[in-house]
Amino acid sequence: MDTASKTPWHLWVVGLVSLLWNGFGAYDYLMSKTGNREYLAGMMEPTGVSVDAAIAYMDAMPLWANIAWGLGVWGAVAGSILLLLRSRHALTAFAASLLGLIFGMIHQWTNPMPEMTDPTTPIIFSFVITVITVFLLLYTRRMIGASVLR
């Protein structure tokens, strides 16, 4: 039987939505790492952090926190692409992304941005990102178990 005919419709929906979601994460990463002031102004406004303080914070991040951030972002993008390619390696990519996310949050929580007047938005966003990443990890594992991913 043809493999494409065994692929459930929801894999394409989950894969495409996750690629869009994680694609925004990649965009955020690139805008943050390149110090795009206009972008950062919009992202920092709800927290009360100035663009200069945000750039200084990111520039001062230790190497391990930068590696964690990159692993979280690019692992998720790779996982989404691998899911769409029906590769079982999507599980490894999403697991790496979750590991990066956890270590990145440890850094953010133990070293909060100076000037932050309202941490509500970052806390909620971290929770949402974690829930989505865990869902993608579990979904991928389920698709491997159903022999959809090879």
UniProtKB/TrEMBL annotation:
Keyword Transmembrane helix assigned: yes
Keywords: Membrane, Transmembrane, Transmembrane helix
Spans through the membrane: 12-30, 63-84, 91-110, 122-140
Name used for this protein in its record: Sugar transporter
Species, as recorded: Qipengyuania psychrotolerans
